[in-house]
Amino acid sequence: MGLVLALLVAPAAASWGQSPSTSSAQAKPLDPALAKPLDPKIARNIELTLRSKLDIPPDYLIHVGPRTPSDTPGFDMLTVSFDVPGHPEHSQKLNFLISTDNKTLERIARWDISKDPASLVPPGDRPVRGNPSAKVVLVNFDDLECPYCAKLHSELFPDTLDHYKGLIKIVYRDMPIEDLHPWAMHAAVNANCLATQSGTAYWSFVDYVHTHGGDITGPDRDLKKSTALLDKVALEQGEKDKLDSAKLSACIAKQDESGIHTEMKLSDILDIESTPTLYVNGEEVEGAVPEDVLWPVIDRALVSEGVTPPPDPYVQPAKPAAGAAGQTAQP
Description:
The protein is an alpha+beta fold. It has helices at 6-9, 40-54, 147-164, 184-195, 199-211, 213-217, 223-240, 245-254, 258-269, 291-304; strands spanning 61-69, 75-84, 87-99, 104-106, 110-112, 129-130, 136-142, 168-174, 277-280, 283-286.
């Protein structure tokens, strides 16, 4: 059983959508009379597993078909379609085997789909923005000195949060890349010092840092000046939110990085190599993607939870047929 997605078997297929004109990769028709519906939760687990394992770009739509009997003991067959709206030439349909206990998906490799993908990227005990009871959580691995993280931050707040109006919650997990960003760890420590007393103060500090990165770095790139400014901003934020100033000052002065390193263990487990990396109920989105790429990912997660997404502002309304407007019936 070979996984024959064009991405994996054809040298020319360096990106998704380049598929051979004839290939055993294409799915063979399954007998509809023998088809059994697949549980939506299992279908969602399969979709997110394929997106993760095959690095499928977020603009691809994935549809998992019903299951039918297979010739392999202990397994059923199902067809998965991969489509890009408006580009039928990039579409593929592939057959997969799914174990009868719904725990294994197989083609060239076996992947565990028994776990909820969202549970693999938990929000942790982190400050929440949005609706704490929302069924969809965006977990962002963030570096406070990273300019691409600042760009994603501007996409998330306020536009994405406003668009979904209580349907999502957002948390940030720490991933300062010290080799590239010398003051990122210091900023993360200060942010967490604020977070121990107030989620509001934490988010205000994060907002400031992500919108004033150039000012913090400074023209002479003096690390001592950068960290001094970060301390000043954090202490001032503590005053605004009426936090325990002595406790906050002691935390900032101590600069204990152990909590940050504990946070970063999850990014190691997930094999995250760059920031920002965002997970939407377990579905990975890498880089500072624009809203028209991010929002369909959020919509998919909402639908999988039985929640209707808000109308997509990027979908243009259908135009009336030529000559239809303004016509009146003739007597």
